[in-house]
Amino acid sequence: MKYETIKWPEDMAPSRCPIHFTNELEVGASPATIWSLLVDPDAWPSFYPGVEHVQLLDGHMSLRLGTRFETNLAGQDVFASVQEFEPMTRIAWGGYPKVSEASKAYHAWIITPTPNGCHLWMEETMRGPHWIELAKKAPDGFWLTHEKLLAALAEVATKRGVSRTKETILR
């Protein structure tokens, strides 16, 4: 199976960042279901660990290419913008914690259809003093948070897919 690759901004390429990690999971939900959750800011608190809100800043109702947003990720108030956007296939955002604009992060999702749902690939790079200090305190903290994120997203997506199937059968 051929997986898509991430279109890293030059300064956020894994070879240029001191923090780089990947997570992946096979999910028994369709790419469309996963996509619908990732682009819906109201859905994030249901699966994204620690996220309490997502505020879109451009008047959009969902994420799209260029959408700027504020949220609380990794225990940090973060400003970010969507920098990759290919429906049902990939989405990525880059940003920084509000306490340290010099500390950057780039978070990408790749969704690949499989016979039983899809394969999710998540990859992130981070640079700057704020992220480095947090990583020193909990070296695997970011990776573990993303493992929880994938598991929670899979659970919500699977339930959403099952409920939509039941609605279709009942019609």
Polypeptide structure, described:
With 171 residues, the chain is α+β, with helices and mostly antiparallel strands. Helices cover 27% and strands 35% of the residues. It has three helices and seven strands. Strands 1-7-6-5-4-3-2 form a seven-stranded antiparallel β-sheet, covered by helices on one side. The C terminus is likely disordered.
- Low-confidence spans: 165-171
Q: What's the total number of strands?
A: 7
What is the rounded Rg?
Answer: 16 Å
User: How much beta, percentage-wise?
Assistant: 25-35%
The helix/strand class is alpha+beta
Fill in the keyword field for this structure.
35% strand, 7 strands, 171 residues, alpha+beta, 3 helices
Short description:
By secondary structure, this protein is α+β, with helices and mostly antiparallel strands. It is built from 3 helices and 7 strands; from the N terminus they run βαββββββαα.
Outline the secondary-structure elements.
Elements: E1 19-27, H1 31-38, E2 54-56, E3 68-73, E4 76-86, E5 90-97, E6 104-114, E7 117-127, H2 129-137, H3 141-170
Antiparallel strand pairs: 1-7, 2-3, 3-4, 4-5, 5-6, 6-7
